[in-house]
Amino acid sequence: MSSTPLKSSALKTRERLSEVRYEIRGELARRARELEAQGRTLIKLNIGNPGAFGFRAPEHLQRAIADHIAHTDPYTHQQGLPAAREAIAGFHKRRGTPNASPERVFIGNGVSELIDLSLRALLNPGDEVLLPSPDYPLWSAATILNDGRPVYYRCLPENGFLPDPEEIASLVSSRARAIVLINPNNPTGAAYPRELLEKIAAIAARHKLLLMADEIYDSILYDDATFQPLAPLAGDTPCLSFGGLSKVHRACGWRVGWAVLSGDPLASGDFHHAMDLLGALRLCANVPGQFAIDAALNGEDTIAPLCAPGGRLFEARRAVVDAVAASPHLQLVTPAGALYAFPGVVGPAARGFDDHRFALELLETEDVLVVPGSSFNVPYRNHFRVTLLPQPDDMREVFGRIDRVLDRYAAESARAAVA
């Protein structure tokens, strides 16, 4: 009988997947589904998914799709419906985006797909992408899976989660290809001022880097916060600006995102052709949702009332800010935009604090699902992210439960200190 060992029948997966993290839908979310299957009622704050919290896409967007449903059966151009690209280009022209034209608009199955396509079009193995820390982890994952290397610039809480342009400049190497900005920011809610964006655009121009501006939350702003688009400040420097229907227009499931390539067309011609090729290989993006783009960009503003005092998002944010202010265990950089808050744990409860342990204990004992802060590629482990989408009363209830867990941590810390 042969002594040759049998080969394992297990399918091997791509090795670089071991470097990818996406805790927003990871092991904690899987445990949450198990608890729900047992009959537990959870408050899930892990995903910025408006439809899961009772929001609906505006009626005029729904009508636009319904009125054109008979025309949605065929494939369309790989870059998107001509009329939809016209609407996006017009929107960007009004913003001052240089060289905005329908030919330089790419429509995808959400911004997520376009992030992946754009990095695939850009990167060779070992190329570097400068990413914010904290980041939205899809950016890190897409960089890694397209054989690039994430290089993180810090957005520290003591600086309002804004980056330091000097640090960004110091991180640019000969392998750097792009600088990514998320504005307004996910997970922190920071809104970037014009002067800061001008400095970052100047770094990209000096080193001939592609600017990649994730602006999916561009109209979700609170108090006196303003949004400054990056492309008008970039001038001739190639800039890819991302937007879509999922957040501002509460239509996540429609999977409609876009990217607009601006700057000098000669400098980005090869990149444009690469994006077009990759778009053609996946044939086209979801067609029905594209018929809502013109209505979204040129119709009624339905997000501003939600973000103003008395609006549901504003009041949910107020509930979080007030709860953190009243807690002995938490601190918060008040979010200026987007759909999230990123509180930090402080004081005795923070001694030996581990964000994953906390998130699991909060889920198991208090039926609340949050995302550990370290999932957003930060080196510290004392933060967590919550979405602002639940009703304000639910947010107050959530933070009462959070404080119960942190009260226990603080008590444990006090006992350990006298032991």
Structural features:
Aspartate Aminotransferase, domain 2, 14 strands, Aspartate Aminotransferase, domain 1, alpha/beta, three-stranded antiparallel β-sheet, 13% strand, seven-stranded mixed β-sheet, 14 helices, 2 domains, globular, 419 residues
What does this structure look like?
The protein is of the alpha/beta class and 419 residues long. It has helices spanning 27-37, 59-67, 82-95, 110-122, 137-145, 165-171, 194-207, 231-234, 269-281, 293-298, 304-307, 312-326, 355-366, 392-418, and strands at residues 43-44, 105-108, 128-133, 149-154, 176-182, 210-214, 239-244, 257-262, 330-331, 340-341, 344-345, 368-369, 371-372, 384-387. It has 2 domains: 15-55 and 305-418, Aspartate Aminotransferase, domain 1 (Alpha-Beta Complex), CATH 3.90.1150.10; 59-298, Type I PLP-dependent aspartate aminotransferase-like (Major domain) (Aspartate Aminotransferase, domain 2), CATH 3.40.640.10. Strands 2-8-7-6-5-3-4 form a 7-stranded mixed beta sheet, with helices on both faces. Strands 10-14-13 form a 3-stranded antiparallel beta sheet. It has a two-stranded parallel sheet with strand order 1-12. The longest helix has 27 residues, at 392-418. It starts with 26 loop residues before the first helix and ends with a helix. The model has no long low-confidence stretch (mean pLDDT 94).
